[in-house]
Amino acid sequence: MKLILVLLMVMSMWRFVPVHLANEYLQCTEYSYVTVKNGESLWVIAEKYVSNGKDIRELIAAIHQLNELDSNGNLVPGQILKIPVLASL
């Protein structure tokens, strides 16, 4: 019973972990810079930079946060985006 109670407490506390600690892309120190082309979306851009085996949604969230995009993630042709790049081993 105590084990179940402890597990429930740990699971409920997980939601308080800051997103930036769970997203590796937000801890990067290496970046690429991309100029947005007409018709490009965050998804299209992120597909070019996502690391193998990583969830593209984490990269999109990091790009969104690093570039302080509006809630819809609207892009404008000519806009320059900072793209986090995970260091390759």
Task: Please describe the topology of this protein.
Blueprint: H1 2-13, H2 19-22, E1 31-35, H3 42-49, H4 56-66, E2 80-84
Antiparallel strand pairs: 1-2
Helix pairs in contact: 3-4
Description:
By secondary structure, the protein is an alpha+beta fold. The chain has one domain: LysM domain (Membrane-bound Lytic Murein Transglycosylase D, Chain A, Roll). Helix content is 39%, strand content 11%. The N and C termini lie far apart (43 Å).
List its traits:
89 residues; two-stranded antiparallel ribbon; alpha+beta; Membrane-bound Lytic Murein Transglycosylase D, Chain A; elongated
* Helix percent band: 25-40%
CATH superfamily: LysM domain
β-strand amount: 5-15%
Major sheet: 2 strands, antiparallel
CATH topology-level fold name? Membrane-bound Lytic Murein Transglycosylase D, Chain A
Query: What is the CATH class designation?
Result: Alpha Beta
Instruction: Supply the helix-strand structural class.
Output: alpha+beta
Strand runs, count: 2
Number of domains: 1
Envelope shape: elongated
Tell me the radius of gyration: 17 Å
The largest beta-sheet arranges its strands as 1-2
What is the H-and-E element order?
HHEHHE
Going by CATH, the architecture would be Roll
pLDDT under 50 segments (min length 5)?
Answer: none
Can you give the mean pLDDT? 84
> Helix count?
4
N-to-C CA distance: 43 Å
